[in-house]
Design brief:
Helix content: under 10%
Strand order of the largest sheet: 5-7-10-9-8-11-12-6
CATH architecture of the largest domain: Sandwich
Number of strands: 12
CATH topology of the largest domain: Immunoglobulin-like
Shape: elongated
Number of domains: 2
Radius of gyration: 19 Å
Strand content: over 45%
């Protein structure tokens, strides 16, 4: 752990390194001059990301993101600049307004999503198990996705969004929002400079 900060005589806060997401509470072993103590169910891992940069001017056509997280070596990433479609099984990095939802609001081969991506990283390169880089296209937003890239140059509107890594394409490998399918939490702001 890093950034260990005492809060009181019996409490502290700390940051764990990036770690593969595991469900359930984790044990904590504390070693001090007074001895070692194990606390079961002390904390849980958050399936979260960190991105840099986390803002871009609304005049940007694209921005390259450095994304920190975990389990990236297990991703089957989309080929550079490949089109996003709702049957996609490649891993994707999306910009989402709020929480990503792959729940279809309509049937058929090209359903609308309850809350799908507003932008897609068209080129994703895994650097290590805890880092990837991608080119986020802000000039061609996916605001009207109905199974394929909207096609028209619809810029992403000003606002604050969530960067989300979807493990198994647009559909996700399991139920909507399953932490084993999604990593999110990093915010990204599109704003005038």
């Amino acid at each position: 752990m890093t950034s260990v900060t005492p809060v009181s005589a019996t409490k502290f806060t700390a940051v764990t390194p990036y770690h593969a997401w595991t469900s359930g509470a984790q044990s904590l072993v504390i070693t001090t001059a007074a001895g070692t103590s194990t606390k079961s169910s002390a904390f849980t891992f958050k399936n979260a990301l960190n991105v840099s940069p986390n803002t871009a001017p609304n005049t940007s056509s694209a921005v390259y993101l450095d994304v920190l997280g975990s389990n990236f070596n297990n991703l089957t990433v989309a080929q550079p600049n490949s089109a996003f479609v709702n049957t996609d099984t490649d891993s994707r990095v999306f910009l989402v307004s709020g929480t990503y939802s792959n729940t279809a609001t309509g049937g058929g081969a090209n359903p609308n999503y309850t809350n799908g991506p507003v932008a897609n990283c068209g080129s994703v390169y895994v650097i290590s198990d805890s880092e990837l880089v991608c080119k986020l296209d802000l000039a061609d937003g996916l605001l009207t996705v109905t199974g394929a890239d909207a096609g028209a140059s619809t810029p992403v509107p000003n606002g604050t969004y969530t960067v989300t890594v979807v493990v198994n394409g647009a559909k996700g490998a399991g139920s909507n929002g399953n932490p084993s399918d999604l990593s999110s939490g990093a915010t990204f702001t599109v704003a005038p400079y």
